[in-house]
Amino acid sequence: MATDKARITVYLPQDLKERLTAIAQKDKRSVSVMIEILILEALEARDRGKE
Fold it and tell me: Residues near 31 by Cβ (< 8 Å), separated by ≥ 6?
């Protein structure tokens, strides 16, 4: 399966990984997709703050 997404590696404290996993499971998403959503939300909020 081809994708246009870049791969990155991030090291997180175990407790943060567990929190992300719990949030992803609750939303029935993969951890990867959940992280993508959270990053996008954070970037959009940051952009709104600059206006």
Answer: 17, 20, 21, 24
Kindly give, in sequence order, each residue whose CB lies less than 8 Å from that of residue 20, ignoring residues fewer than 6 positions away.
12, 31, 34, 35, 38
List pLDDT tens digits, range 13-50: 999 999 999 999 999 999 999 999 999 999 999 999 88
Domain boundaries, the chain: 14-49
Question: CA 13 to CA 22: how far, in whole Å?
Answer: 15
Residues found in the chain: 51
DSSP per residue over 24-35, as a string? HHHTT--HHHHH
CA distance 31 to 28: 9
Model's pTM, two decimal places? 0.82
